[in-house]
Design goal:
InterPro entries: dITP/XTP_pyrophosphatase, ITPase-like_fam, RdgB/HAM1. This protein is α/β, with parallel strands linked by helices and about 200 residues long. Helix content is about 35%, strand content about 25%. It has a single domain, classed as Alpha-Beta Complex (Maf protein), CATH 3.90.950.
Length: about 200
Amino acid sequence: MTRRFEGGKLVIASHNAGKVREIDALLRPLGADVVSAGDLGLGEPVEDGATFVANAEIKARAAAAASGAVALADDSGLCVDALDGDPGIFSARWAGPGKDFAAAMAKIEDALARAAQEGRTSRRAHFVCALSLCWPDGHCESVEGKVFGVLVWPMRGQKGFGYDPIFLPDGHHLTFGEMEPDAKHAISHRANAFNLLTEACF
């Protein structure tokens, strides 16, 4: 049986300020008293899972155990068709220790140029967001959301974070980097995952 969040403190198991802002905006109407792992000084566990869900559960379990409160973790990334799904679960690592996403986006563009020379010309891609809600006893509820689109170059827009400036979602003319936050939240992979999680657990 699905376990439901009964309110009170909820730890967002992330040190990514952009991600924390997005999650906080989605959670605020649900009666959660949100605090981030960074605010609590919690360490970051080693993410050695083979899937987005596995890595989300690793982060949420660690934060719940360390804080004694229910914790929510997100693991998300960009999967590029012509690159066999890369960078995928390694999306943050492509940005390096300095979290240089401009360099990571250039790396993707270079990889797409090489793929095109081999006849793989698709620029299709999708974002994935896995959300895991974990309790201090180790119980987790996890869901996964996606949003599909194409990659553009050069980068467009200063809003959002991560790979947002190169991702143009299907049916839209603005990249995630150009969209106002409310417009992005309405259609994003994170919003899709949140809808699934709130229906199940809130």
